[in-house]
Design goal:
The protein has about 150 residues and is α+β, with helices and mostly antiparallel strands. It has a single domain, classed as Gcn5-related N-acetyltransferase (GNAT) (Aminopeptidase). It is about 30% helix and about 20% strand. It has a five-stranded mixed β-sheet. Helix 3 links the parallel strand 4 and strand 5. The radius of gyration is 15 Å and the shape is globular. Bound molecules: coenzyme A. The site of coenzyme A has 21 residues, from strand 4, helix 3 and helix 4.
Length: about 150
């Protein structure tokens, strides 16, 4: 059975600024940490959407938002961020469909490498990404420099 056959009533559509409150509510339901006073603030998200509108993708059951993914294109690679599926809608192929749609949109921008950062305690997500053909690189460590704790 294909992943899509389980999610026949789910539509993937670009997210719009008007979806902001639904997005934050979904991330809270999915227990995905967000930074509402930093890069996830309403103004920040709206500005990011203006730059790359097609890389903000939602999974909808009618008008109900049940999944998100945000792609970021650094000019060399396509990065997957903020993948979240409503707990009541998991294991139906929605996460896989969101990743595949984001990859498809990256390909139209000539990106051929797709990456994602996953925290080491997040075993379900690691299993999810490995099961959809992402390769874990144990030799790479992530370093960052932040202007403040909120950003
Ligand atoms: C990770 C997440 C997005 C997966 O969404 P999903 O819609 O349930 O995933 P899918 O149904 O497309 O799963 C595809 C495959 O991945 C694997 N998989 C998905 N979730 C899994 C889990 N909890 N445990 C083990 N394997 C899992 C399975 O192989 C699954 O196929 P199957 O159901 O036929 O066995 C979802 O669990 C989630 O929102 N988690 C909380 C937010 C989060 O941590 N996001 C990632 C930040 S990096």
């Amino acid at each position: 059975m294909s992943a899509y056959s389980q999610i026949i009533n789910i539509q993937l559509r670009s997210l719009k600024p008007a979806h902001y409150k639904q997005i934050i509510a979904l991330w809270q339901r999915a227990e995905l940490p967000s930074r509402p006073s930093g890069r996830d603030s309403e103004d920040e998200i709206k500005n990011q959407m203006k730059r790359d509108p097609e890389l903000f993708i939602g999974a909808f059951e009618d008008e109900k938002l049940v999944g998100t993914i945000i792609g970021t294109d650094d000019g060399r690679k396509g990065w997957l961020n903020r993948i979240a599926v409503d707990p009541d809608y998991r294991r139906k192929g929605i996460g896989r469909a969101l990743v595949e749609e984001c990859e498809r949109r990256f390909r139209t921008r000539e990106r051929r490498i797709f990456g994602v950062q996953v925290e080491d305690w997040n075993e379900d997500s690691l299993k999810f990404f490995e099961d959809i053909s992402y390769v874990l690189h144990r030799e790479i460590l992530y370093l960052s420099k932040r202007e403040s704790e909120d950003v």
